[in-house]
């Protein structure tokens, strides 16, 4: 019985991985089946991997709280069985999920665990943690500090590491460069990231790169090229659920640049709905901020004040002083 269970779980996981982009719904179902067999699996590494796989597919479909529950089950096994490499992976993936929800304090705690000197995690886990800390700085609009953390990640990256990781480092560097209006640098960084994401078959990263290429084009005032990249990104939406809100926010800004205010408002409200549905709170406050600006320019003061108030409430809830102080304290601890 036990060898059969092991073979079944391994097959389900492998098939789920194989079908990630070709048939994402089937991939999710296979991962769920593997997780159901996990409690009867005598191999703790395989059991934890089954829960991890299911969690990652739930994350891909925007079901973040459910994915966290699956990952916490995997983490319990990894900690009980002292599976250090897997524990490091799970910590950084959970941190990413908390970050996506706007729970930065929790995300920082998980990433801090990955960077402790005595943690004995892989270099790859440390890279992911630096990427994550940079993302928290980015959310706080501390773009130079974000760039510094992402350069820490890049300094640890080697050519033998996975295409996915190397692409991820470059994508985050490009995001910082775009926020700092370093359009040429961002374009060069994205040009380096694209072949990695393409060779790896990573549709989410391909979608992100296309959106950032559109951001660069918009920054340079070229709305036609921006629309070209947005159209390419839209073709990936079937498997790139997390990117939909970013894509809609970008479309609204392109529409504004073209003076198409009504269409821009429609896109932003759609982005706000999707952000609320998927729990991506750190995008919610940006949508309210943009809406407040548009309604103010349209002379609709009540609507402008309403969205500005919602923006302030969301900003205070997500971008907290405690998170920033926690980041500063962690940096000081790591420096010693």
From TrEMBL:
TPR repeats lie at residues 88-121. It is found in: Cytoplasm. SUPFAM superfamilies: TPR-like (SSF48452). Keywords: Cytoplasm, Repeat, TPR repeat. It comes from the Bacteria. InterPro entries: Bac_ResReg_Asp_Phosphatase (IPR051476), TPR-like_helical_dom_sf (IPR011990), TPR_rpt (IPR019734). Pfam families: TPR_12. Belongs to the Rap family. This is Tetratricopeptide repeat protein.
């Amino acid at each position: 019985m036990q060898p059969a269970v092991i073979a079944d779980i391994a097959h389900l996981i492998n098939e789920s991985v194989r079908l990630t982009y070709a048939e994402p719904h089937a991939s999710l179902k296979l991962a769920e089946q593997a997780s159901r067999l996990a409690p009867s699996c005598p191999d703790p590494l395989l059991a934890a991997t089954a829960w991890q796989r299911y969690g990652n597919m739930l994350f891909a479909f925007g079901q973040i709280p459910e994915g966290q529950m699956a990952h916490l089950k995997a983490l319990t096994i990894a900690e009980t069985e002292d599976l250090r490499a897997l524990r490091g992976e799970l910590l950084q993936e959970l941190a990413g999920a908390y970050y996506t929800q706007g729970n930065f304090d929790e995300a920082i705690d998980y990433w801090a665990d990955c960077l402790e000197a005595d943690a004995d995690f892989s270099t790859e886990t440390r890279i992911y943690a630096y990427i994550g800390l940079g993302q928290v700085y980015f959310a706080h609009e501390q773009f130079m500090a974000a760039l510094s953390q992402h350069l820490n990640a890049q300094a640890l990256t080697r050519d033998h590491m996975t295409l996915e990781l190397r692409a991820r480092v470059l994508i985050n560097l490009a995001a910082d460069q775009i926020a700092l209006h370093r359009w040429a640098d961002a374009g060069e960084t994205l040009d380096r990231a694209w072949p990695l994401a393409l060779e790896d078959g990573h549709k989410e990263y391909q979608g992100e790169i296309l959106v950032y290429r559109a951001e660069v084009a918009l920054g340079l005032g070229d709305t036609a090229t921006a629309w070209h990249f947005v159209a390419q990104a839209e073709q990936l939406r079937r498997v790139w659920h997390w990117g939909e809100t970013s894509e809609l926010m970008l479309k609204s800004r392109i529409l504004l640049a073209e003076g198409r205010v009504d269409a821009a408002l429609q896109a932003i409200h759609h982005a706000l709905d999707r952000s609320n549905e998927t729990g991506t709170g750190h995008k919610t406050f940006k949508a309210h901020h943009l809406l407040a600006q548009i309604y103010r320019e349209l002379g609709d003061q009540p609507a402008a004040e309403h969205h500005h108030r919602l923006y302030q409430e969301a900003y205070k809830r997500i971008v907290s002083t405690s998170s920033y102080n926690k980041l500063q304290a962690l940096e000081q601890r790591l420096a010693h």
